[in-house]
Design a protein that fits this description.
The chain is mainly alpha-helical. It has one helix spanning 2-53.
Length: 54
């Protein structure tokens, strides 16, 4: 009985670590996507400003 309880907690801790690792990875990916979108927005705004000057 004690073996199965230890096995359960071990698997539970491993799953929690994997879950938090996945969340950290997703947050990192979302941050990269946001930075890319911000970069595109700045490029679009710069092009619009350049067209207004002409």
């Amino acid at each position: 009985m004690d073996f199965f309880a230890d096995l359960f907690w071990l698997l539970f801790v491993i799953m929690c670590l994997c879950f938090f690792g996945f969340l950290a990875y997703r947050q990192h990916e979302m941050k990269k996507e946001q930075e890319y979108i911000i970069k595109l927005n700045h490029e679009i705004l710069d092009r619009l400003k350049n067209k207004e000057r002409l």
